[in-house]
Design goal:
alpha/beta, Rossmann fold, six-stranded mixed β-sheet, 31% helix, globular
Length: 170
Amino acid sequence: MKLFLIRHAEVKNKSLTSNALDQIKALRGFYRCFDFDQIYSSTLSRSKITALEFSSDRDLKVVHSEDLCEVIPDSKGNLTDEEINKLEKIRKKLKNCKAKNIALICHGNVIRWFLSKEFDVSLKQMMYVDIYPCSTSLLVWRKNCGKIIFINNYSYIPKNIRGDCFYNVC
């Protein structure tokens, strides 16, 4: 199974920026010929809007889940037990899923958490990895073995709509 971890479009003060819809259009265009079996999204508006716009020309219903909402590690890079349990629950559900291609549209720290599990490193270590708006990271799971194919691909987003976040400013 391929799990496409897609970060929501660019935000400022928790609202989508003027570049956001163009970023989502670029993302949608890049994956237009790709068949997703399921699309999951966080329930926070920046992810919901990204997911709904991304899936607007597909015959798929977006599944919104509070388990994918943003998590904020403490100063030691730890999450609360409740946050870990939510993420573990959705990870287990996805790993046991029969779908071949799933898009998970969520937040940078959620993506970092998924990647930390596959790299077998701490979330604190993964905090040094940039996850840009509308970027994709791809995991492939086969028989309980995970493989990271790429992290933070944003090559499909034109330079003129990348915004400040692509230059380590946000």
